[in-house]
UniProtKB/TrEMBL annotation:
Top-level lineage group: Bacteria
Name of the protein: OmpR/PhoB-type domain-containing protein
PROSITE patterns: OMPR_PHOB
Stored PANTHER family: TRANSCRIPTIONAL REGULATOR REDD, TRANSCRIPTIONAL REGULATOR REDD-RELATED
Organism field: Arthrobacter humicola
Length: 312
């Protein structure tokens, strides 16, 4: 019987964490499908849910250079075993179909956690932040455990994990940006720190982290995060953070200086000298006034540096 919204899935599958296939509420084992190779076939088709995978492609992924003249017959035998396990008595109407000299799983008859994950992210991208945020958190909950973590020795599984890792980082950053837009800077910091652990050179993630500390009124933490980013970029990329991060850094310096008159004077002096070094901008000062401000900036910095040296 079909539901009001479409066909009822014949099987539910989990690819995050421990692999699990359930049919009519009963868990199926690899042995039920005929062993490890049939499970691999099913996993590959699940990773391509709704898209046909040719027999040639399946044989290449499963056997590679070790494929033989009998590989097609072996593959077809494995497919028969999978069908018996996941759709008994439904050879032509079950989720596993023959298509384009290969095989495809019907997405309307398979409840797959990876498919739900991507659907939530896609839907969230079309909604306002307050409606998108819970969907993003739900998607992150679905992918809390590794994708295909049990298939450690398969190249095709490693490729799938790499693709998903990039998807997850993008999701974490998107969720952090959404949290920040909803005035939840603490949530944003926690979310984006996970993205940075996965991709330490992701500038978008560092920008969200620094600006979230700024939003939370934590300039010291934001300045420390910027310094970590600056040193990391210099060491691994040989460059400085981009304009957005540099602007956030300057705002944090000003925010920190507001509570300390001495730091405020030092920052003002540095900004004045920086403008002079970078060439004339904006209103031109009379020579005498410019010279006076330059000397005053020098005295402020000299006095500050002397106190720093004395304290070390």
């Amino acid at each position: 019987m079909e539901s009001l919204t479409g066909p009822t899935p014949s099987i539910s599958v989990r690819l995050f964490g421990s692999f699990e296939v359930r049919r009519d509420g009963v868990a199926l084992t690899a042995a039920d499908m005929g062993g490890c190779k049939p499970r691999h076939i099913l996993e590959i088709l699940l990773l391509n849910l709704g898209t046909p995978v040719s027999k040639t492609r399946l044989i290449d992924l499963l056997w590679g250079a070790a494929a033989s003249d009998g590989s097609v017959a072996t593959l077809e035998s494995y497919i028969s075993g999978i069908r018996r396990a996941i759709q008994p008595g439904q050879t032509k109407t079950g989720p596993l179909r023959t298509a384009n000299s290969g095989y495809v799983l019907d997405p309307t008859l398979v409840d797959l956690d990876l498919f739900r994950f991507r659907g939530l992210v896609r839907d969230a991208g079309e909604l306002p932040p307050d409606e998108a945020y819970p969907l993003l958190l739900e998607a992150l909950d679905i992918c809390a455990e590794p994708l295909l973590g049990f298939e450690l020795a398969s190249d095709w599984a490693e490729e799938a994990r790499s693709r998903h890792a990039a998807e997850k980082v993008a999701l974490q950053i998107f969720a952090a940006e959404t949290a920040a837009s909803l005035d939840k800077p603490d949530d944003a910091v926690n979310l984006v720190q996970a993205a940075i652990r996965a991709e330490p050179l992701n500038e978008r993630a560092w920008t969200v982290l620094v600006t979230s500390y700024e939003q939370a009124g934590l300039p010291a933490e934001g300045l420390a995060a910027y310094d970590r980013c600056r040193r990391l970029f210099d060491r691994d990329l040989g460059c400085a953070p981009g304009p957005a991060l540099q602007e956030a850094h300057l705002r944090l310096l000003r925010q920190r200086a507001e509570s300390n008159s001495e730091l405020s004077e030092v920052l003002a002096a540095l900004l004045f000298l920086g403008e002079r070094l970078n060439g004339p901008k904006g209103r031109q000062l009379p020579p005498a006034e410019s010279r006076r401000m330059h000397e005053n900036a020098g005295r402020v910095l000299d006095s500050f540096l002397q106190r720093v040296r004395a304290a070390v």
